Amino acid sequence: MFGTFEPEHQDESVVYGIITPVASFNGIWVQFNTYISIISRLSTFKSLNHKLKSLYMGPGWRPGTKRLGNPEDIPAIESPIRVFEVSVPAWKTLYAFVHFVVLVVFFKHAAAHYNQWGTVTVWTVCFAIMITLGNVGSVLDDRKWIPMAELARCGVLGLMISKGAEVDLVGAPAVALRTLFALSAMLWTGCLTKQLAEPSQKRQ
């Protein structure tokens, strides 16, 4: 249909995946990084006509080339593909696992009760779920900004639950979440303090 079919060659091994592997566990980045790349590519074209063509022509298209671009411009594919891996402490892996499980359980809770909530609450919950999904992945990426981001997330969510946010969480589940977010906020406060102290120690 798109003119991109290529039969297999016996002397070449098949490599599955995308040309540029995503180097992140952040679920939000994984979903939207391609759109960011497309927008960035638009800035490389001067005329509006070329900008529009870059959206519906092949990914390798340039002015003066065929619809799918020049085959010579296609990046060489490495085999085997290098898997994105980051070495993180065991406690970060455990932390990400616990918060991801909590996210899944809360998502099921939200799916069952969202029709009883107000519009603002529904949008707030959707935003919180997306932020949580992104942050949990970034913990596994070992991003330098994650202590600040997680401190803010856990602090805000813990405060919302303590203030009785309209999410139908009462009793033991509410206490468990408040405790989890409080302990997590304390953990990241320590990490952030240590992180901020490191530059001053290096200067000394």
Secondary-structure topology with pairs:
Layout lengths: L26 H16 L5 H9 L33 H24 L5 H23 L4 H17 L9 H32 L1
Short synopsis of the structure:
It contains six helices and no strands. By secondary structure, the chain is an all-alpha fold.
Structural notes for this entry:
This protein has six helices and no strands. The protein is mainly alpha-helical. Helix 3 runs antiparallel to helix 4, helix 4 (119-141) packs antiparallel against helix 5 and helix 5 packs antiparallel against helix 6 (172-203). It is elongated.
- Category by helix and strand content: mainly alpha
Order of helices and strands: HHHHHH
The count of helical stretches stands at 6
* Percentage of residues in strands: under 5%
**What is the first-to-last residue Cα distance?**
64 Å
Q: Write down the Rg.
A: 23 Å
* Count of DSSP strands: 0
What percent of residues adopt helix (DSSP H or I)?
55-70%
Shape: elongated
Task: Please outline the major beta sheet.
Answer: none
Low-pLDDT residue spans: none
Summed over residues and divided by their number, the pLDDT gives a mean of 85
